Structure formats: structure tokens, C-alpha cells
Amino acid sequence: MVILAATTGGALGSPAAAEGETPPGQVEFPTHCLPPQEAGLPPADGTTTARITADDPAPRVGDTVTVTYQVAATPALNPAAGALPADTLTPAGRILLGGAQSGEVTVVGAKRNDPVEAGAALPGVTMTGTFTVTAPGEITLAPGGYTLHTSHLLDLDTVCAATGAPVSQRLTASPLPTANLRGVSLGAAYGKPGARVRVTGAGFVPGAAVTVAGRAGAAETPDRVAARADERGEFRAELPVTDKATTGVVAYEGAAWSAGTGSGPAAYTVVEAAPAPPPGTRQVTAVVEPGALSMTQAGESVVLGAVPYGDGGAAPGRIGTVTVTDARGGPAGWSLTGKVTDFTGPGGVRIPGASLSWTPRCTAAQGSPSRCAAGSAGVVGPEGAVLASAPDAERAGGTFTVDATVTLRVPPYTPPGAYRAVLTLTLS
Prior knowledge:
CATH class of the largest domain: Mainly Beta
Shape: elongated
Region (Disordered): 7-26
Protein name: WxL domain-containing protein
Structural class: mainly beta
Helix content: under 10%
Low-confidence stretches: 10-17
């Protein structure tokens, strides 16, 4: 388990409409605009014509999506006493999220406009912002209220409230791929034919029926026993191992073992009694005892780089180097996985764990029988991902060095402060 801490300090929209056609996603909604008190103008009620686009209509959980809120027409009027010069209008607004994900996105625009005559309607504006996808499914985006700030002679805000704005854009978010965290450990690594070995499993679906079976290479042996996972996804069973060909023990849910619903094999060796030596001779025996599958990690915490308030961006870092030692002496490989909680900061503000991604590396020490494969670069998240692994092989084992660079995507305008999460690594 590692504590992670971070400190804050070209779009693909909908297809363009042909001339004279209504752009895809364009909606109209009633708007009540309150001019600044200094202007001495009455409230302006009317219709806002707007459109929302997103740079990715099919994101995955953990992705950052850039959204654009375009106001084509507004009932708000120029609040200045005279003509408003060019580039003195700054917009800000909100996009309302619905469906699979709730909340709102703050969007802002550049100070950019053509001159506006006294008493004329304010021009259309464009505002952009980003949000992180936290849930799979359809996410709806609807226009919210917006503020038009003018900065000629006086700083004046015209605040426009949206009433019942319809959905302008829909995204379909896909879930993260789920890492298989199932694993088994044995009470003994070898025994005589017929010995009962204690098997402990973890990471299974709570309440699932589990089959514990012997394995000889890729094939199962007749050795098997049934078990059931408890509410934490764990089980305990005793497996009688009678088949001399058994070289490992696996556990799985369902009718047959699969990479998605089963554990990798834990090494086990059936040891037969040696025949009596001939008269006049003595038997000399040397035993190489199998060891364990274990890991150690350098350091207890990971401090990510700081990002500036307002801009947001990538907070980089590295996990502490992990050393995996496989001294079991059997044919079983291993898998090292990780998962991360949400980052919690000041006032309970959260950055989703799905905002953390990594790029793993793995190196086998010289002389190690097994080869080592780094996991895929991508999102870690609360569901977990593979950091590194070694495949089953006729001769397995060795010492392996595992490391990874990590990056936390911090949304713009995340409140300043330290944000902490827990990264848990599991070796099976």
C-alpha cells in the first residue's frame, strides 16, 4: 500500500451544418437576464440560442473531456452608457451534467467581441471547459446560466439565468477494463501423494461458487474440491492431492478456468518416497526446499509534482521501485496489480482515482528463469490494472525489478491544497 499525494497550485465537435441548416445540438431556452444595477436597465427576458459540443463523444471512465458552450443569441443588452468597444466582453457559464454523471462544468471564454452599439443586444460568445468522466453510461449535457462581463470604463456583469434548457449533447462513456485480482496461496508447497493442502483464495466475487483444482501444465488433474467465497470474496479449502502429475493449484468461478474468472496456478510438488537402497549401499539425499512469492517496495509514499491553480494539468511522479522474488520453484507465473482510491483534498474535494494513469516497466535479474512483462500503459483507477506479470513456464522463478511513472490529471480550478489517495499493490 502506497500513499500518493498531489498539490495544486484541437476539438472534435459535431459535424458542421450546411448553410441555412440548424447546427446539430442547437437548442433554445427561456432566459432571464439581470443587467448590473449601475446600468439602470430593466431585466431582459427572452430566448437564448445555444449549442454544446464535446471533443470526445465516446470517452472512457477517467478520460478528460473538453466541452464548448456556444451562445449564438442572447436577450442581454449592452449595459454600458455608450457604445461598447471591441474585445471588452468576457463570458463565463455552466454546463449541467445528467444521466450517468451529475454535476456541472465551469466554462469560460476569451475577451473577444466586435463593437456593440448603445442599447443593442450583446453578441454571441464561446466558452470552453473540461471535466473528468467518473461513471459509465450515457451522460447528457445541457446549457446552464451564464454571465457576460464588460470592462469598458466600468466593470459590469450581466447575469443570465437559464430556465428548463433542453439537452444539447449526449456522450456515451465506457467503463475501464477490470483487472483480475483473483489469487490463491497454499499452506505447503509440496507433499506426499494423498496429502491435503490448505488453499486460501482472495479477490473472487463475493458469494461465488469456486472450484479448486490441481493443474499439470495447462491441463487440470482429477484433484479438485468445491468452495464458496465469503462476503469479502475470500475462501479457504483443503485439497487432497493424489495425482502425481499435479504441479500447481488453481481456483476459478464457473464451469471451467478462464483468464478472467480464475487465479493463476500456485506451485505444488508431489514428493514420492524414495525406494530402499540395495544392501551394502547408503542413500545420500539433498533437498532443495521451495520458497515463497514475495515483494518489497522502496519508500512508503509517492509525492507527485504540483500543478498551478486555474490551469490544472498533469501532476507527474513515480511509484517506489518494487522487487518481486519468486522462489517457489514450480511452473506458475505471477501477476502484480494495483488499484487506487479517489484523491481527497481540502473540504472533502475529490479528484477521481480514474484520473491517475501509469506507464509500467519490468526487468528480470540476470539468471532468472522467467521473463517479465510490464503491464499496459493507461488508467489505474479503483478497478485496478496490471503493473507487471510473468507467465507460466516449465522453469519459473527469479528476481524482478518493477517501476512505473504515474500521472494525475488535475482538473482546472481545482481548489489549492494537498490531495491524497491510497495505491494498493497485490501480488498473486
